[in-house]
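ok so I'm stuck.
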Amino acid sequence: MRKVTSTPNRTEQVYVIIRDGICNGTLEPGRHLVQEELAASLGVSRQPIQQAMLLLKAEGLVIESGARGLHVAPMDADRIMHHYQIRICLDQLAARLLAARIAAGDEAVRSRLETVGGKLLKEGMSAQRQQEAATAVALDMEFHSLIYECSGNPLIAAAAEPHWNFLRRVMISVLLHAGRGPTVWAEHESILEMLLAGRADVAEDEVASHIIGAQQALLAALEADKQSA
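replied:
not stuck anymore, here's the structure
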């Protein structure tokens, strides 16, 4: 992990570094998080580590196991389903609001969605073809973040962030091993088309189907890993 720079908000930096380590798999599920070791590794005192751990526990990325201390949270199937239930609601809301803005003739929003969305589709499809799973996941998140941004409701992105943080831990594995990569980007393309057409009803249905498919693929990948262990 990289060292923390000497900017004022060290807790935020420590939180982001540990969170990203958990989400990209560097800090694997079940890993014992020893605060003294983390502090030494990041070049900080224990105080920002302790504060960051409180944030990570609140997001469900870190758990406390009594006398055994803090650990990276396991990938629990029920918790994954619960996160996806909320994500469906948030993404459908964003799609409905965005499609309504376009249907009402908001050309600025339409132009941004078409330009940036088209670019993300092209880059995402390319990353998927080249098996660059980490890049494809990052672009997947950017695509959905664009919909949140263009929805006109600034609270949606903030509400969705902790769910993305929890779920993206296994998204790379799914894209690599579950054969879902091409499907993901084909569905993104169809969602984008419906949004640009101002078809809120169809866009909402396609968003829900897209997210349910991702949930099922994640759960199936977890089950396969469990059986092969």
